[in-house]
């Protein structure tokens, strides 16, 4: 559904913003195309069907990838050494066991041996992509069968107990109470694990581990609930952190519907190495494109550290960069859940008008993207009564500006992980605003010379200025200088750098080959409101 | 003024409080009775059930009003009062420059798995909080913010490398008492790594700490909800600049100080 333009944005300025974002992104795209990471290589193994973990809980994909990395490095891609060695083993799992025990020799095959290894590798990953494709078709069939939510925005609710078996009934209850999208928040700290935990997990910190089995269990439960409530309940998790590509692959195979996947979040907020992040991010977005998964980007986070008025344009800049990186990786607009948030200090005069201006700007810049509208967190306090009022205004702004996915704000945001009653009160708040203001967007036409239109243009102008500086300076330098969210992150710092390698001339990854082949970068863009 | 107080609704001494909670039972007459019985056992007299609403299938949410039968004696209330003067940024800078003669080094981090930097950033980032600038804004403070999920050994090493006068740690995640475990681990690591006189001042902060538990957790000071950067800066000056010079307390930088003033 294309959003109707309401603001008199200068089409030339909008085009300039996109052109600058493309120029700023290009060096990073080049970097992503010429490097690989341990996680990209492990994702290939996961797509090829390798699962399970050793008795210490270290996945076999890590054991196998580490052995190859130690013997031949990852710069050629580990597929050829692995599938060459596989000729002497019945399957990848047995090869991984041997590799972990130091009983497997890995070499880079040549000539016929290389062709045979290439054939085996391609056949294996093709099985994995078939599985991803089947999951996508299954989603389409279920949506056709039980239907989409009747209203926009979709109501997005978070579950986070740490125990997948506790999460399931909570998620089902939330869906029955009105949630259209369930996000299972990850355990704090998973983003910095350089492996994906294995199996069903019952203990986490402020969240539940993202694992293939947890994905499968929750998706199966929500399929059941979707039929009961008569609408397809979407499931969300996080393709972020050091294992972003692997989690994307697991999500594709287990039919998750949305994944948080931001181009810079890990760099800024988890101090993950910028190059690692951009390489992993590109691969994971290609997987999401193949799997039909809607990505959710994390612009809301900038506003939790920086001031939401002063830094409004950094959100726009990040949205434009996220859009560019997504298009380059083959993600079309309907899969682009760009984020923004209601984070202006409520003590600021006319804060609600400013929120409307920022939200409308995003809506109009990205008319076909399922924008994700994030609730207040920074200015939520222990005053839960005031918090409930703020959340009401947040819901109202979401409805008035035609947001697509609404993350339900909790009045106890700053106090506890949501109680069952907090969720119920929050959903009541959303339902009231959605029902009482159902058609309000039709009546909302901010005047062309009014406060909202002026403010939106001002933010767009500032975004263009900043993009210009980023182009001059280089995106990696801009990140190093603390342009986004105040955090300074140099390109040679951060976690996970040791897992990055420049691709050798003969680099080959069968998963990347397939993903690159089905990817048509989406570059021909609209102008401003002239569509 | 009376030192004995009760809650105030609309009349002095009425003791009125409001309360909301959920019981894990379906909504019916018995559930409402159970809510009132709970209120009575919590010390509410003449409890009124003003709202009862089913949540899902097996839960009911209640709002109850009633008069608290308990009294509070203000003289028996124990709190940690601020035991140091509150200084403005300028006063902090002046005190450090004049009395320490070098920059005061502060190393901050979120330790363990805690990824919520909101607390440490509010205190350290120049942006600050509640209209106050963060410690990065103080000219005489050298701030090293290590960010989220810093391993304790890394924090100790960095604090030693930087010659930190104070280490600030923020802990927001409290699930399974993670904040307490992490704080104890950090305090123990500093005790192990450095002799008493060389140890930086250890300060932790977070919304769910008990201010009185500093000694028990092995740290010098705990800050809780509502702390601003100037509260922290004032405390640092008090402990590391003023108190040391006034009482010759042993501290991490005594030798340095003597060398500089010699």
Q: What is the name of the CATH superfamily of the largest domain in chain A?
A: D-Lysine 5,6-aminomutase alpha subunit
- The CATH class name of the largest domain in chain A reads Alpha Beta
Structural class designation of chain B: alpha/beta
State the total count of DSSP E strands of chain B: 10
The assigned CATH architecture of the largest domain in chain A is: Alpha-Beta Barrel
Q: How many domains, in number, for the residues of chain B? A: 2
Write down the overall mean pLDDT of chain B: 85
Poorly predicted residue ranges of chain A: 524-531
What's the CATH H-level superfamily name of the largest domain in chain B?
Cobalamin-binding domain
The major β-sheet of chain A equals: 9 strands, parallel
Could you name the CATH topology of the largest domain in chain A?
Answer: TIM Barrel
What is the overall silhouette of chain A?
Answer: globular
Strand order of the largest sheet of chain A: 7-6-5-4-3-2-10-9-8
Residues in β-strands, percent of chain B: 15-25%
The oligomeric status of these chains comes to: heterodimer
Distance between the amino and carboxyl termini of chain B:
55 Å
């Amino acid at each position: 559904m294309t959003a109707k333009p309401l603001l008199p944005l200068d089409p030339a300025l909008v085009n300039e913003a996109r052109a600058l974002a493309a120029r700023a992104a290009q060096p990073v795209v080049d970097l992503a195309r010429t490097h690989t990471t341990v996680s990209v290589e492990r994702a290939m193994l996961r797509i090829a069907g390798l699962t399970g973990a050793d008795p210490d809980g270290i996945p076999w994909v890590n054991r196998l990838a580490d052995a190859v990395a130690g013997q031949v490095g990852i710069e050629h891609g580990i597929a050829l050494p692995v599938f060459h060695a596989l000729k002497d083993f019945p399957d990848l799992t047995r090869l991984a066991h041997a590799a972990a025990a130091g009983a497997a020799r890995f070499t880079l095959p040549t000539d016929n041996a290389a062709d045979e290894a290439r054939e085996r590798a391609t056949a294996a990953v093709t099985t994995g992509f078939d599985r991803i494709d089947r999951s996508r078709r299954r989603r389409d069939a279920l949506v056709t069968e039980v239907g989409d939510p009747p209203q926009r925005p979709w109501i997005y609710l978070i579950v986070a107990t740490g125990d997948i078996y506790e999460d399931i009934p909570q998620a089902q209850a939330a869906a029955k109470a009105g949630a259209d999208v369930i996000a299972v928040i990850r355990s704090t700290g998973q983003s910095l694990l350089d492996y994906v935990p294995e199996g069903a997990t019952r203990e986490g910190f402020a969240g539940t581990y993202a694992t293939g089995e947890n994905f499968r269990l929750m998706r199966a439960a929500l399929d059941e609930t979707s039929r009961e409530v008569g609408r397809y309940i979407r499931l969300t998790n996080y393709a972020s952190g050091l294992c972003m590509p692997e989690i994307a692959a697991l999500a594709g195979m287990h039919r998750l519907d949305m994944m948080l996947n931001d181009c810079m979040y890990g760099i800024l907020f988890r101090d993950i190495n910028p190059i690692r992040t951009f390489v992993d991010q590109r691969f994971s977005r290609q997987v999401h494109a193949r799997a039909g998964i809607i990505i959710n980007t994390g612009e809301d986070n900038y506003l939790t550290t920086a001031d939401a008025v002063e830094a409004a344009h950094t959100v726009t800049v990040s949205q434009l960069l996220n859009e560019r990186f997504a298009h380059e990786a083959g993600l079309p607009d309907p899969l682009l859940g760009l984020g923004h948030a209601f984070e202006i200090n409520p003590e600021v005069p006319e804060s609600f008008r400013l929120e409307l201006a920022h939200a409308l700007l995003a809506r109009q810049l990205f008319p076909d993207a399922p924008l994700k509208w994030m609730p207040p967190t920074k200015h939520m306090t222990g005053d839960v009564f005031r918090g409930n009022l703020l959340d009401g205004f947040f819901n109202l702004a979401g409805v008035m500006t035609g947001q697509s996915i609404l993350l339900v704000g909790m009045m106890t945001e700053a106090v506890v992980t949501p109680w069952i009653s907090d969720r119920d009160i929050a959903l009541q708040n959303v339902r009231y605003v959605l029902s009482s203001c159902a058609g309000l967007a039709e009546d909302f036409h901010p005047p062309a010379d009014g406060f909202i239109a002026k403010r939106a243009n001002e933010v767009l102008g500032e975004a263009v200025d900043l993009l210009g500086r980023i182009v001059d300076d280089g995106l990696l330098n801009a990140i190093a200088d603390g342009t986004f969210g105040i955090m300074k992150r140099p390109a040679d710092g951060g976690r996970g750098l040791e897992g990055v390698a420049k691709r050798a001339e003969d680099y080959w990854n069968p998963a990347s080959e397939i993903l690159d082949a089905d990817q048509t970068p989406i570059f021909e863009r609209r102008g401003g409101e002239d569509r | 003024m009376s030192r004995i107080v009760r809650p105030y609704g609309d009349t002095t001494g009425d003791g009125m409080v409001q309360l909301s909670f959920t019981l894990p039972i379906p909504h019916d007459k018995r559930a409402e009775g159970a809510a009132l019985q709970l209120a009575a056992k919590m010390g509410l007299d003449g409890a009124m059930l003003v709202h009862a609403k089913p949540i899902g299938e097996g839960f009911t949410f209640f709002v109850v009003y009633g008069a608290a039968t308990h009294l509070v004696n203000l003289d028996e209330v124990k709190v940690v009062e601020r035991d140091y003067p509150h200084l403005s940024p300028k006063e902090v800078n002046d005190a450090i420059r004049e009395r320490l003669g070098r920059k005061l080094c502060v190393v901050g981090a979120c330790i363990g798995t805690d990824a919520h930097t909101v607390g440490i950033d509010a205190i350290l980032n120049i942006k600050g909080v509640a209209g106050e600038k963060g410690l990065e804004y103080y000219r005489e403070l050298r701030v090293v913010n290590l960010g989220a999920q810093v391993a304790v050994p890394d924090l100790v090493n960095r604090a030693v490398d930087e010659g930190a006068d104070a280490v600030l740690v923020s802990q927001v995640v409290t699930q399974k008492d993670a904040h307490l475990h992490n704080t104890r681990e950090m305090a123990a690591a500093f005790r192990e790594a450095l002799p008493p006189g060389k140890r930086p001042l250890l300060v932790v902060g977070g919304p769910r700490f008990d201010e009185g538990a500093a000694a028990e957790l092995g740290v010098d000071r705990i800050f809780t909800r509502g702390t601003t950067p100037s509260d922290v800066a004032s405390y640092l000056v008090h402990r590391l600049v003023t108190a040391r010079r006034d009482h010759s307390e042993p501290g991490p930088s005594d030798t340095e100080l003597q060398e500089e003033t010699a």
